[in-house]
Amino acid sequence: MSAQLETSLGDIVIDLFPEYAPKSCQNFIKLCKMKYYNFAPFYHVQPNFSCQTGDPIGPDSKDSDGGTSIWGLLGGPSDRLFKAEMNPKLKHAKQGTVSMATTPAPNDPDVLLAGSQFYITLGDNANRLDGKAAIFGEVVEGFDVLEKINSCFLDMDTGRPLKDIRILHTQIIDDPFEDPVGLQTPTGSPVPTAAQLSTQRIAHDENVGENVDQESLEKLRREREARAQALTLEMVGDLPFAEVKPPENVLFVCKLNPVTPDSDLETMFSRFGTILSCEIIRDKKTGDSLQYAFIEFENQEDCERAYTKMDNVLIDDQRIHVDFSQSVSKLSGAWRDSMNSKRAQKAGFGGIADLEKRKQYRAESDRGGDRVNGYGMVFDKESKDRYRNEPRQQKHDRDRDDRDRRRDGVRKREYHDDYYDRRRHRDRSRDQRHNIHPSNRSRSRSPRRDDYRSRRR
C-alpha cells in the first residue's frame, strides 16, 4: 500500500502501515485519491527534525480550516476529525517516518484527534513526536528531497520556507480499501484556488536570483549561518536547543561610567516598573566595573518603556546605550543545572550506568593527605580493603617477597654493569702495555697470542 507525492523539489514515495493504523492509512490514501493535497504547502520545517504539510491552503491564511479528513469532506463538519491510532510499537526513530498531526479532543484531553495534516521526519530520533503524532507510514524513496527540504532557507519566526515547497500532484500506487460512499475521483489535477495562490511568497517555479536583491540574499545567508552556529552550540551543550530565544524582559545597558554603582542604576530604572535584578558586570580579580549591566524587569511592558526612554540618557557624565539583551547564559545555566541534577539521581557517572568516572593517579582531594589512600590508580577500593584486612603475618610475608624481588633486580643490574666495566678496563690496560691502537686491535683476546703472531710474520 503506497502513495507518491510529486513535490516541487522531487518525488516522495510513502509505504503505509495498514496493519497498525488502518483508519489513518485509509484517510491518507483517499485524500490523495481525491487530489486534496494538490498545491498544499510545506508550511513548517524544523531542520534535522520534521516538516509539516497536509493543509491545502496553509495555516497562514484566514480561509484555512486546518485540514479535513476524508469523512469530513464526504459527511459534514462533525466528521472533520477522527480518533488517532497511537501504536506504542511505532517510534519516530529514523528519517522519513510519516505520522498524522493530532490535537486533543475538546471534551477529553487524553483523546487525540487527527485530520489531514501530517509530519515527515527529517532526522533520526525525533522522540519529541512520540505519543503526540500517529505514525502510519514511512518514506521508501525520495530521501534526496528530504535533504533539500532540510537545507532550504526558512523564515526563522514561523519555520516556513522562503521559497514555496508544494505538493503538486499525488498518485496512488496501491489501494486495498474500498471507496467511501460519495467519493468522486477527479479526472485530472485541479487548478490551484485563489486562496492557495494568495499564500504564495516566492513561487516554487520562480527564479530567485533574478528578483531578489543582494541585501535579501545577504540576509538569507546570515540567517542560515546563525542557524548553523546555534546547532553547533546545541551539540556542544552550550544551548539547551538551537531555537532558544533570549528573554524579552531583560535590558542590556552599556557605556556606563566606571564609578556608577548598582544601586544608583537600579534607582533610575525602577521608575518604569518593578525590577527583579540589576547587576553591573565586574572584573573577577579587581572588582572594577566593565561598564555594562543587565536589568531584568518583572513585566515586558515596563522593559519596553524603559528601553524607549533611557537610551542615550546622561548618567554620571556618561551617555549610556540601552538595548534588549541577546544573552541566554542564564537560561542555559538553569537548563544545565536541571539536567545535571536529574543525572545525579541516576546510577553511574553522568547519568549513564555503564560509564565510570576515570580515575586519576592521585585524586585532587587527597593530595597532601594519606599516602595509601591518595593514589587512586594503584589499588581500587576492593583491593585496598582486602589488603587492609589480611592477617598480619601474611602481609609481612608479602612485603618481604616484594622487597626480595626488588633487591634481586637491583643486584642483577649492578652485577651486569660491574662486569662490563671491569672488562672494558682490562682491554684498555692491555692495549697500553703492548702499544696497540684500538683500531688495530685483533679479534683475539690474548695479548700473548697477538705477540706470537707478530713475531712469526
Highlighted features:
10-stranded antiparallel sheet, alpha+beta, 19% strand, 457 residues, RNA-binding, Cyclophilin, 12 helices
What percent of the residues sit in helical stretches (DSSP H or I)?
A: 25-40%
CA(first)-CA(last) distance: 107 Å
Contiguous uncertain segments of 5+ residues: 356-379
CATH architecture classification of the domain at 2-198:
Beta Barrel
N-to-C SSE series? EEHEEEHEEEEHEHHHEHEEHEEEHHHH
CATH domain class of the domain at 2-198: Mainly Beta
Estimate the strand proportion.
Answer: 15-25%
Question: Might you state the CATH topology name of the domain at 2-198?
Answer: Cyclophilin
Q: In DSSP terms, counting alpha (H) and pi (I) runs of 4 or more, how many helices?
A: 12
What's the story with the biggest beta sheet? 10 strands, antiparallel
Mean pLDDT: 78
Rounded Rg: 39 Å
Structural class of the secondary structure composition?
A: alpha+beta
What's the name of the CATH homologous superfamily of the domain at 2-198?
Answer: Cyclophilin-like
Structural shape? extended
The number of distinct β-strands equals 16
Domain RRM: 249-327
Family: Belongs to the cyclophilin-type PPIase family. PPIL4 subfamily.
Catalytic activity: [protein]-peptidylproline (omega=180) = [protein]-peptidylproline (omega=0)
Domain PPIase cyclophilin-type: 6-172
Describe the fold and architecture.
With 457 residues, this protein is an alpha+beta fold. Among the domains are: 2-198, Cyclophilin-like (Cyclophilin); 250-343, RRM (RNA recognition motif) domain (Alpha-Beta Plaits, 2-Layer Sandwich), CATH 3.30.70. 33% of the residues lie in helices and 19% in strands. It is built from twelve helices and 16 strands. The chain has helices at 22-33, 70-74, 143-150, 194-198, 208-211, 214-236, 262-269, 300-310, 329-344, 381-388, 392-433, 447-456; strands spanning 2-7, 10-16, 40-41, 44-46, 50-53, 82-83, 97-104, 112-121, 134-141, 166-174, 250-254, 275-282, 289-297, 314-315, 318-319, 321-324. The strands form three sheets. Strands 1, 2, 3, 4, 5, 6, 7, 8, 9 and 10 form a ten-stranded antiparallel β-sheet that branches. Strand 12 (275-282) and strand 13 form a beta hairpin. The longest helix has 42 residues, at 392-433. It is extended, with a radius of gyration of 39 Å.
